[in-house]
């Protein structure tokens, strides 16, 4: 079944609305519960879901670990980094350029590179790989922020919201037809991040 352009448009609108509600909610745990339920519903039923159509009726994924406030950070962007560019080949969007604009230092865990999507629209992108990857979470890693696609938890250069409870599987975790930018060394933590979306092939 081919995904229509307006299905993709509707998917992006819904994702943007989900994250708008997350940013508006004063309680991060309540926002997380609503986010998890809404994302699970989209994955299981939306025409633009990365879950293959034949698997949606029996979809049992979208499992998310309970909220843990210890994994929520509001940190300034450390822009004192060497410039770096990554050109990522994807199956649907061709070569996607990313430019490193800084680092987010997460106390007790390490630091993650913060990338800027350098093509039309732009946006902040923070992928994540940690010691749960390939065990309880997707082996290729997860995404924390992808503001181009609506995954935006809020904040600014002086206090970016990096809440790892909202880490989610990229589309390629559900279907090999998708090609996803995955975390490099600067987005890999030696620590365990047991929160966020858990692995569901």
Describe the structure.
β7 (155-156) and β8 form a beta hairpin. The protein starts with a helix and ends in a 38-residue tail after the last strand. It has helices spanning 5-24, 28-45, and strands at 72-75, 85-90, 94-106, 110-117, 124-128, 142-146, 155-156, 159-163. The protein is globular, with a radius of gyration of 16 Å. The protein is 19% helix and 24% strand. Strands 2-3-4-5-6 form a 5-stranded antiparallel sheet, with no helix packed on it. It is α+β, with helices and mostly antiparallel strands and 201 residues long. It has one domain (5-187). It is built from 2 helices and 8 strands; from the N terminus they run ααββββββββ. The model has no long low-confidence stretch (mean pLDDT 93).
The gist of it:
19% of the residues lie in helices and 24% in strands.
List keywords for this structure.
201 residues; 2 helices; 3-stranded antiparallel β-sheet; 24% strand
How is the largest sheet built, in terms of strand order? 2-3-4-5-6
Characterize the main sheet: 5 strands, antiparallel
Low-confidence stretches: none
- On the 0 to 100 scale, the average pLDDT is 93
Shape: globular
Task: Look at the helices and sheets and give the structural class.
Answer: alpha+beta
Q: How many domains comprise the coordinates?
A: 1
Evaluate the radius of gyration: 16 Å
Strand content: 15-25%
What series of H and E elements makes up the topology?
Answer: HHEEEEEEEE
């Amino acid at each position: 079944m081919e995904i229509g352009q307006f299905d993709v448009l509707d998917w992006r609108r819904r994702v943007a609305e989900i994250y708008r509600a997350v940013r508006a909610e004063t309680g991060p745990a309540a926002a997380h519960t609503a986010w998890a339920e809404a994302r699970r519903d989209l994955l299981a039923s939306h025409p633009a879901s990365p879950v293959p159509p034949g698997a949606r009726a029996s979809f049992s994924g979208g499992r998310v670990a309970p909220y843990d406030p210890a994994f929520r950070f509001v940190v300034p962007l450390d822009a004192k980094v060497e410039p770096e560019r990554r050109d990522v080949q994807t199956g649907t969007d061709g070569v996607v350029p990313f430019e490193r604009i800084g680092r987010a230092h997460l106390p007790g865990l390490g630091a993650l590179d913060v990338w800027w999507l350098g093509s039309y629209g732009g946006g902040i992108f923070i992928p994540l790989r940690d010691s749960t990857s390939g065990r309880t979470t997707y082996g290729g890693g997860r995404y924390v922020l992808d503001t181009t696609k609506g995954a935006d938890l809020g904040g600014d250069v002086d206090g970016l919201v990096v809440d790892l409870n909202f880490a989610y599987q990229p589309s390629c975790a559900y279907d090999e037809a998708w090609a996803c930018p995955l975390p490099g060394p600067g987005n890999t933590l030696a620590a365990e991040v047991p929160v966020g979306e858990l692995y569901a092939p």
